[in-house]
Batch of 2 targets.
Target 1
Amino acid sequence: MIPGFRKMKFPGMKARHLRLDRFLRMTDNLDNQPYCPECRSLAEAAEQLSKQTMQTEKDFQQFEIQYLNLFRKINEHLKISHRYRLPNYFISLYSLLYTIVGILAGLFVVYLGRTGNFGKWSYEIGALLGFVTGLAIGRISGYRKDKQIENEHKNLF
């Protein structure tokens, strides 16, 4: 979509800063939602933006402001309305949550072992084992969920 963006010339490192590759993938995601009127209006706005010409630095600054606002709107709309997610979103989320739960579970097991007179258990070892176990379970379950999102073609970019 939007061949105009592929032909634009930007001063300096601005093309890398603007992340046009992500923008183009998000506009492709807009095209995958044919029954959403907001997606159609955002796609039309992106099409109009791609037709702008930039002669001076001031033109580029105005383009950059419009581009960043449109990028934010498309990003929010796809995330909220169509449940698109960032790549590796669930790996990060599940790793954090399961790590916290694993540490707390490891500390709880050590506490039960000490109060039950089952020997002198170390809180550090319990926390470490809980951390490793929670992190491993979180990474595996997050990877599976991210694969499911990828198979449904719901990655944001």
Target 2
Amino acid sequence: MLIRQQNILIFFLVSITVLIISCDRVKDDLGKGYIELTYKLNEPNHEVDPSYQTTIWIEDSEGKYIKSLLVSEYISYGGYSDSLMCLTWNNVADWENEDVENVDAVTMATPDVEENILRIDCVKEKLPPGNYYVFVETHLEEEYNILLRGEVSSEGDDANGSFLISYPGGKMEGAENVLVGVTIKYIDSEIPKS
């Protein structure tokens, strides 16, 4: 009986040790820094009245949706049913079936008409080192949206990414300057405390 108890204790200790080592390896496989996205919302050049409803999400290097990082409050709590508002995000996010805890975690007020900064903690978001696409989509009005797709690498040292712009629903005359000043970069350190 004593030998059986010792064997069970040894098995338990070995299992705990393996679990601890595995958790450390998983933690080591995550990016240690953060991705910083900066963007500026402006007033349009003419009589356009943008809603400024904004969604931000991340995809892996193969274009597979990972998760939403910011969703304007109106869209998050029902506006997603308007298929013309942030229509690219609407096609990938499946927001109606999103976990309520995540919905609450990423839902924010509509971004201000000014410079905005979003910092994405690679450890918290469980992002391993690699290449990612970060999307910013802002609704203007009716079917008009502005979509920016940025590519960034979270491997190695600090790195700047690049952006491509498109206009889902068509390009709206006079609204080209609504979403500008977009930068994306990986910073190989912890997010600064503010």
